[in-house]
Amino acid sequence: MNLLPAMNLLPLILLAACEPAPPERDCALGPEHLVIATTDYVSGALAAVDPQTGCVADLLSSLGPDPLVRALGDRVAVVDRSGGDTLRLFEVGAYERPVVEVVLEVEGNIHDVERVGDQLLVTLYDRDQVVVTDLDGVELGRIELGAHADADGVPEADQIEVVDSIPWLSLQRMTRGARWSADQPGRLVPLQLDTLTTGAPLEIGDNPRLVSDPLGGLAVLTGIFAEPDGALHPIDLQQGLLPPLVTEGELAMDLTHLVGLGPDDDRAVLLAVPFAEGQPSELLCLDRLTGAVTPGLQTDGWLRDAVAALGRVWVIERTGWGAAAGRAAALHTVDPASCTVERVTEAFALDPDSIAFVGGDL
């Protein structure tokens, strides 16, 4: 009897027996929930949270070491930053494995993904292009950005925000080197999907981080990290930057995130990190009409990301940035009107790093 074929099957049988079972959810997810990319910067995983109970379904799917999550209607997208190149698309509520997993550009360093109609726009921070795909991740074309590059040839395409169906792209235009610098102001350009071109640029300050203005339209957080040179500016899409509402010099911190509840609410949440390690991060509440700032939370963790949902702002905190030993990563919720902060949960195996809200109207 020839036993060789059976013997050759043995490693496969052993591998199948060792393969981990799909994770069991600790809670049911309704049509409205939070999705959170978690990571220790070596490996990542997707988690989901029921906002009504704070229940966490953790370690649902393996991700790259620096993942970014976005909710895009009936899709949830996760992309790889820090030199990463992969786009993963999940069906809403089915997070155990992606329905699409595709490499768009080797070491492209994806910084954002946005949906416009039936197309996805993906920024490549280490290239001079935006990739356009269909909802299945099939590439449809690329928008060339070389005309907007600075001297090193890379315009550093960062964030996309959509205003009145027009996608606007921020270009940081950093000078690369041992210590990156902003020798040229960043730009904001409209993307024209019918022709795969860009419109006329606006200059929007050094190292811009594009955000939605709580009162509608766009705003930008400027400045090099660890220097008191930046500010929060509203943007006039015809003229460019408007006068600052808040400056980093006033707060003695770097501004990183601004999240509001919508144009009918003039309050928003502002996140800031210290210029040097060992100092606390802060959550502040901003009156968008007056520029007044109210302190909400000071922590030795790292306030990493935030999203608006269900009349509140949800903020994730990871350990790091000089956090005390034993401090747990957490999800917080904030009422911007009172600036009251509540700690929702700490039940994450890996630190939360990026957050999005999946709404009930798909």
Explain what this protein looks like in three dimensions:
- The chain is mainly β.
- The protein has a domain at 253-362.
- It contains 2 helices and 30 strands.
- Strands 12, 13, 14, 15 and 16 form a 5-stranded antiparallel sheet that branches.
- Strand 4 (67-72) and strand 5 form a beta hairpin.
- The longest helix has 15 residues, at 4-18.
- The relative contact order is 0.12.
- Residues 1-24 have low confidence and may be disordered.
Question: Brief overview, please?
Answer:
With 362 residues, the chain is mainly beta. The chain has helices at residues 4-18, 248-251, and strands at residues 33-39, 44-49, 56-63, 67-72, 75-80, 86-91, 100-103, 110-116, 119-124, 129-134, 139-144, 157-163, 166-171, 187-192, 197-198, 202-203, 209-212, 218-221, 231-236, 240-241, 246-247, 254-260, 267-273, 281-287, 293-299, 302-309, 312-318, 330-335, 340-345, 351-358. The chain has a domain at 253-362.
